[in-house]
Amino acid sequence: MINSLQELINEPELTQIDDPEERFTTSEVSWNQYEALLVKLGDNSSYRITYLDGVLEIVSPSFRHEKLKKRLATLIEFYLINKRIKHTPMGSPRVKKQFKKVGAEPDECYCIGEEKDIPDLAVEVILTSGSIDKLDIYRRLGVTEVWLWKTNRLKLYHLREETPSVFEETYGYEQIVTSELLPGLDIALLEQCVFISDQIEAIDAFKQGNTDFTDLEEG
Description:
Elements: H1 5-9, H2 12-15, E1 22-26, H3 31-41, E2 48-52, E3 55-60, H4 63-82, E4 87-89, E5 95-97, E6 102-104, E7 108-112, E8 121-125, H5 134-141, E9 145-150, E10 153-159, E11 173-176, H6 187-194, H7 199-209
Parallel strand pairs: 8-9
Antiparallel strand pairs: 1-3, 2-3, 2-6, 4-7, 5-6, 7-8, 9-10, 10-11
Helix pairs in contact: 4-7, 6-7
């Protein structure tokens, strides 16, 4: 067990977190230690910090991870803008609830409609598995929908607060095929366009596949 923040910062495994998608995980970390680590690393940290029930996970995202999450964000936001859906892009904020013993930094997240403290949609790119289940994290935070990019595909989950026992294995989330927050979004098309290496070509293909987009140039 790590007994102090200084021991955590000086852990050899943590100092070597420069390999793509390298992870450092430790347990029995108090909420105060977690908060102190966030202060130590600051807002511009290149690390992603996740906390759940005393388990702390620090990830150094790879270049591939960052490219995937930015491409997803670009296409999602292009869709929201062209469909004139009111939204607030929140990026990767630190979202936490002490009484729930949980804290996370989504890869990308959005409020749909009015701006809120907790996002409606969280998007995570998962290239290597960690010890903390993302769905457990987001259930405790109260995020309505979670999109997980795993094995080159999007897996969508919608929180069923009214019947959580039906979906115990997924922490109250039901896996869905079509987003309930963005029902008009073609998920298969979104997945295809993520793999187009050229940003402009990806957006063009995404726009062509959505023939009902509003043409911003005419507005």
